[in-house]
Design a protein that fits this description.
Elements lengths: L1 H13 L5 H12 L4 H8 L5 H36 L19 H14 L4 E2 L5 E3 H4 L26 E3 L4 H10 L4 E10 L11 E11 L4 H16 L5 E8 L2 E10 L16 E10 L1 H6 L8 E8 H9 L6 H4 L2 H4 L7
Parallel strand pairs: 1-4
Antiparallel strand pairs: 2-3, 4-5, 5-9, 6-7, 7-8, 8-9
Bound molecules: 3,4-dihydroxyphenylalanine (DAH).
The site of 3,4-dihydroxyphenylalanine has 11 residues, from strand 8 and strand 9.
Length: 340
């Protein structure tokens, strides 16, 4: 028995294989249920008791050696195989890495910023969590104004003084409080309103606020600025029209329409036959607002305007459902190409 163990041991030690299959054959021959090592273990029953300890030890050593050798060989062929025969087809086209694209709202926001920066407007921003003063009171919005209603405004704590801003007009107040005229700035940002989500309304959207304060700023300056913007954004042939309106923080106030960019004013289903579509609110900053922000309303005047980025984007790209902007479906998003 001892001799057979020795013989098998040297057979194992000297064994060399050319490939994986060869190793597997060897494993079956040595270690499988009918293999030589298993056979010796079977015969171990018949070994005389005084030899058992020694033979048992040798047998275990043999088994371990066999296992080690087989593992070693397997490893050797596996790594060789990986290099020689990699399991991939190198002729396949490479998997492309999606580089993504800019969100349509960012594209349009950047375009708005770029157009106004050509007129010397800087870019400013303010907090999305606001206090009542900046969002309403300083903007001449009386305590009983419907815009303060719980239905429109999100209050984020028990404290009714803290709101999610409902308009970027709040940034006007920060700017006027913290700088001296002349002021020429636009403030893009996200705003929140407690509205039911539909194709035309959302609880979050984006606005760009504009503010111009200096000596002798007139309504004609406002009109010319907005005409320039509209032509740059929607094309040279675009016309504008200002309709009287009301905002608490402007006096006089107006809403501005542009000639429908689709039918050029002839009337279509986008402008509902009117030939015009509304794009923003504007007006001359109310002297009370200037005073609230410690700007002398006898010396300075100014204009302000506010537009919805979603609205402009929908008109530019004929997007009919506002919700698409917030769903992040790449099939929608990848259709937009950045221009600036
Ligand atoms: N804040 C107004 C809104 O959210 C938009 C607006 C209108 C802003 C007139 C202005 C403005 O600065 O002068 O509906």
């Amino acid at each position: 028995m001892k001799n057979r163990i020795e013989d098998l041991l040297s057979e194992i030690e000297t064994f060399a294989a050319d490939n994986k299959e060869h190793v597997e054959e060897f494993r079956i021959k040595i270690l499988s249920k009918k293999g030589k090592v298993t056979e010796l273990f079977e015969e171990f029953k018949n070994v005389a008791p005084e030899l058992r300890k020694e033979v048992g030890q040798k047998l275990n050593e043999l088994k371990n050696k066999a296992q080690e050798k087989i593992n070693e060989l397997k490893e050797q062929f596996e790594s060789k195989d990986d290099v020689k025969n990699p399991n991939i087809d190198l002729t396949l086209p490479a998997e492309s890495i999606g580089i993504g694209s800019r969100h349509p709202l960012s594209i349009v926001r950047n375009q708005i910023v770029e157009i106004f920066s050509r007129l010397g407007f800087t870019v400013s921003d303010g907090p999305e969590v606001e206090d009542d003063w900046h969002n309403f009171t300083a903007l001449n919005t009386p305590a009983d104004h419907p815009a303060r209603d719980m239905q429109d405004t999100f209050y984020i704590s028990e404290d009714p003084d803290i709101v999610l801003r409902t308009q970027t007009s709040s940034v006007q107040v920060h700017i006027m409080e913290n700088s001296k005229p002349p002021i020429r700035t636009i403030s893009p940002g996200r705003v929140y309103r407690n509205e039911a989500i539909s194709a035309r309304a959302h609880c979050q959207f984006h606005q760009v606020e504009g503010l111009y304060i200096d000596k002798n700023v007139s309504f004609a300056d406002l009109k010319q600025t907005l005409l320039y913007f509209s032509k740059e954004m929607f094309g040279e042939e675009t016309k504008i029209r200002l309709r009287p309106s009301f905002f608490p923080f402007t006096e006089i106030s107006a809403e501005m329409d542009i000639s429908c960019p689709f039918c050029k004013g002839a009337g279509c289903n986008i402008c509902k036959g009117a030939g015009w579509v509304e794009i923003l609110g504007c007006g001359m900053v109310d002297p009370a607002v200037l005073q609230n922000c410690k700007i002398d309303s006898k010396q300075y005047s100014g204009f302000a305007f506010g537009m919805g980025v979603e609205r402009i984007t929908m008109l530019k790209y004929q997007v009919k459902d506002l919700r698409l902007f917030f769903e992040n479906d790449v099939r929608f998003l990848k259709q937009f190409k950045a221009v600036v």
